[in-house]
Amino acid sequence: MNQKNVAMLLGIKPTSITHWETGKVIPREIYSTKIIQFLGYNPYSFKTETLGQRIRTYRLLHGYTLKQFGALIGVTECTIVDWQAGNIQPSKEHMKKLNKLFKPKK
Q1: pLDDT digits (tens), the chain, 106 positions
Q2: CATH value at residue 59
Q3: Is 43 in contact with 35 (CB distance < 8 Å)?
């Protein structure tokens, strides 16, 4: 498969593939889900020790932007940024929603 075909599958320009392959640019987070689906495996190494790391990992693996994830939980994207950075902690209500998302599906 050539760069043009891969770019079409991912919904990006072929030059982006070139920049990724040469290391000039790191793929933006919004492409992580498509990249994982295309490759058939997860090339990323995510840390999940802290709540912020778990939130970021979940977002990236499921293709959520900050805004989309915030809407899913019922908070602003700024709140998600603060949670990821460890600046503030979620309320009990929001923590329940997060734990429900993080719970492995059977």
Answers
A1: 899 999 999 999 999 999 999 989 888 877 888 888 888 888 877 788 999 999 998 988 888 889 999 999 999 999 999 999 999 999 999 999 999 999 987 6
A2: 1.10.260.40
A3: yes
Mark out the alpha helices in 13-50 (DSSP H runs).
14-22, 32-39
Q: Does 90 share its domain with 58?
A: yes
**CA dist., res. 44 & res. 59, Å (int):** 13
- DSSP assignment letter at 27: P
Domain that holds residue 95: 51-102
Cβ atoms of residues 19 and 10 within 8 Å:
no
The answer to whether position 44 is within a domain reads no
DSSP assigned state of 28: P
